[in-house]
Design a protein that fits this description.
The protein has 131 residues and is an alpha+beta fold. The chain folds into two domains: 35 residues, no CATH class; 91 residues, no CATH class. The protein has five helices and five strands; from the N terminus they run H-H-E-E-E-E-H-E-H-H. A five-stranded mixed beta sheet has the order 1-2-3-4-5, with helices on one face. A hairpin with a 4-residue loop joins strand 3 and strand 4. The longest helix is centred in the first third of the chain and has 8 residues.
Length: 131
């Protein structure tokens, strides 16, 4: 499904650069991500961490499903999402966590446009934080 991304693909130059280091040549497998199909629910769990995913509203699902994550450990609990709108799945993932990371990156030229059309502006973020 994603083999075209690595050697001979999108990450070919990155892999080539990393392989140039003698100490990395014998361990190139370490740079390959562990890709697994994902669906809502627990996506990873071991004796130290539990990761739960659920869909979030970002782009049309027919293009790609997008997920928010809840990461639970013995100490901090973290929720992570890219830019999404306030919706029940993300609110539930973030409920009672210690840290919510709500990442949204866009180019400088979009700054003037973004406040007019941002689905999750400061007022929205405040509403989510008190849910």
């Amino acid at each position: 499904m994603i083999s075209h991304m690595f050697e001979g693909g999108a990450f070919a130059k990155d892999i080539e650069a990393r392989a140039a280091y003698v100490q990395r040549k014998s361990n190139l497998a370490a740079i390959r991500p562990d890709i697994r199909p994902m669906s809502p629910g627990v996506v990873y769990e071991d004796d130290r961490i539990k990761v739960t995913a659920n869909t979030v509203d970002h782009i049309p699902e027919e293009i790609s499903k997008c997920y928010g994550l809840r990461i639970e450990t013995d100490d901090p609990e973290i929720a992570f999402s890219g830019d999404t709108t306030p919706q029940p799945n993300m609110i539930e993932l973030a409920r009672d966590v210690d840290l919510l990371i709500h990442e949204a990156t866009f180019p400088e030229e979009a700054i003037a446009f973004r406040p007019l059309h941002d689905p999750c502006n400061n007022a929205t973020a405040t509403r989510i934080s008190i849910c």
